[in-house]
Structure formats: C-alpha cells, structure tokens
Write a sequence for this structure.
C-alpha cells in the first residue's frame, strides 16, 4: 500500500534514530493518511487517501 497523499503528493520522510550513546539507525516518519469521500462540486464523489494536513487546511472538501 502506497503511503502517499493523493492531494498534495507528500510521502514518508526518512532520517535517523539517535540513541543516548549517539548510535544512528535508520527510521521513517509516516503520514497520517485518512480515507475520505471527496465531493467534487458537480455531484461526483470518490474515495481518496488524503493526509490530515490537507483536510485541516481545507484543500479537500469532504462529501456528507
């Protein structure tokens, strides 16, 4: 399953876990993706995987 927002295209970010002894191991920060029904305005609706940043900012209008 792809962890990419279908609205803005954001994906996982990689970096390092850094322990107290300063050892570095790789890790990933995942997005908070939600599957929502989106209203397109012309009566069309579909389900999209959208990050919560897009939902909160109002880039996506949820269908009721």
């Amino acid at each position: 399953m792809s962890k990419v927002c279908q609205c803005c295209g954001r994906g996982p970010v990689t970096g390092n876990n850094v322990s107290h002894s300063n050892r570095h191991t790789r890790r990933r920060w995942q997005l908070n993706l939600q599957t929502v029904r989106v209203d397109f305005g012309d009566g069309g609706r579909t389900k999209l995987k959208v990050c919560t940043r897009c939902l909160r900012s109002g880039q996506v209008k949820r269908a009721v």
Summary: The chain has a mean pLDDT of 93. Residues 13-57 form a domain with the Ribosomal Protein L24e; Chain: T; fold (CATH 2.30.170.40). The chain has one domain: 13-57. DSSP finds one helix and four strands in the chain.
